[in-house]
Write a structure and sequence with these properties.
The chain is α/β, with parallel strands linked by helices and 470 residues long. The protein folds into 3 domains: 72 residues, dopa decarboxylase, N-terminal domain (Up-down Bundle), CATH 1.20.1340; 246 residues, Type I PLP-dependent aspartate aminotransferase-like (Major domain) (Aspartate Aminotransferase, domain 2); 111 residues, Aspartate Aminotransferase, domain 1 (Alpha-Beta Complex), CATH 3.90.1150.10. The protein has 14 helices and 13 strands.
Length: 470
Amino acid sequence: MNNDDFRQWSHRAADWGADYRDNLRERPVRPRVEPGDIFRNIEASPPEDAEPMDRIFADFEAKIVPGMTHWQHPRFFAYFPANAAPVSVMAEYLVSTMAAQCMLWQTSPAATELETRTVDWMRQALGLPEGFSGVIQDSASSATLNAVLTMRERALDWQGNKKGLAGQGRLRVYSSDQVHTSIDRAIWVSGIGEENLVRIPTAGRFRAMDTVALEEAIAADRQAGMLPAGIVACVGGTSTGGTDDIAAVAEIARRHGLYLHVDAAWAGSAMICPEYRHFWSGVEGADSIVFNPHKWLGAQFDCSIQFLRDPSSHVRTLAIKPDYLKTHGHDGIINYSEWSVPLGRRFRALKLWFLLRAHGLESLRTMIRNHVAWSEGLAARLESESDFEIVSEPMLSLFSFRHRTPPGADADDHNLRLVNAINDDGRIYLTQTKVDGRVAIRFQVGQFDTTAEDVDQAFATIAEIARATA
C-alpha cells in the first residue's frame, strides 16, 4: 500500500465508521450466528499473493461485521459499557498512524508528559487530593495485579522478587465475594495462591464487607503465624454494584499496616459528579485506586488509570533498569514502563486528552447523571409491575431484577430462558448474574449515545418477551 492508497482507504474507513454509527440502531445488538459460522467462512490458508483492498474491505463488511456484537449500540445494556466516543476514535487513529513505543520518556517525550498531565486532570476531576499520582494501564486487571505484587513485596520486606516465595511466610489478602475475578487472577499470578484470598462476609444493600469480620480475620491470621499483606476493596462491583465502606476499610488497613487497593473500575467514572462521591468516602486513605475511563467516560479501550498515593513502592516492585533502557543525562524524569508489568506501552493519553477537551467535564457529568436517572426510572417501572421483582436496588446505573414465575416453576430456569430470549430478539442486550445463589438479570445504562427512548424500548422489550415466555 503506497501513500496514495493509504490516503484513499483511510478516507473510506472513516466514512464507513460514520455510517456504522449512524445505522447502529438498525442492527441487532448481538449477532444472530452460531459458533463456528464465521470461522467456516474464512479461508483456511493464508494467501500467497497480495489481494486488492477492495476485496479485503468487501469481505470485512460481508463476513466480519455480521458476526460482531455491537458494543457501541445505544441499547447495549449488558456487562459494563466499553464506550468509544468518536473523538476518542479519531485520537486512536492518530496514535496508530504514529505507531510509537512509549515505554520511556526518551522514546516519546510528549507521550510521557501528556500522560502525567491528563492523569492529573482526572485526579482533579474525581476530587482526589493532591499528592496522588498515577499511570494509564491497559486494564483494571493489570492495575490490580500491580497492586497485589506491591502488597506482596511490601509484606515480604522486598524479598519476594529476589528470593521467590518458597520459604517465606504465608501471605494473606482480604476481599469480599463481590470483587471482580481479576482479583482472583492477580492472586494466582502473584504466587500468593487462591487459598490465601480470604473472602469476608458482606451485608447491607450494597453488600459491603463486614468490617468486624475483616478485622477478626486479620487478627486470627496473625495469631496463626500468617502474613496479612493487603485488602482489595470494591466500589461498584460487577455483579450488583457491591460497594464497601471505604473509610472504615481504610482505617483498618492503616491500623494493621496493610496495603489497600480500591477497585472502582466502572463506578469511578461517576465520581466526576460530586454528589456520587459518598460512594467512595475515605478513598484518600487508599494506597492504590483503579478506574477505567474506557468504560463509562468514553475513552476507547484500552485506558485504565491507576492512582497511587506513594508510587515509590509501586516502582520499587516493578522497575528493572538495564543500561539500554536508561535515559542518560536526565534526572527526575518518569519512565512509565517502570510503573507496569509490560515494557512496551501505547500512547493511551492522547485519546483521553482529546475526549476531555472535546466534551468537557460538565457534558460528561450530564451523561452520567442521565444514565443514573434513567436506570432508576426503569427499576421503578419494573417494580410497579406485579410480575417483576427488583433483586438488587440501583447502584448508580446498575440494578438486577427477576420475572416472577407461577408457584412450583423453576425461577432460575425461567429467568435464564428469558434473558436468552431477549438477547436472541436483538433489540436490546442484557446479561445475567447470581444474587444469593439465585439467577437474576442485570441491567445497566452506560452507552455513550443511549437516550431515554432507548431505555423506554428496553422496558417494552423486557415486558413483551417476559409475558410471551411465561
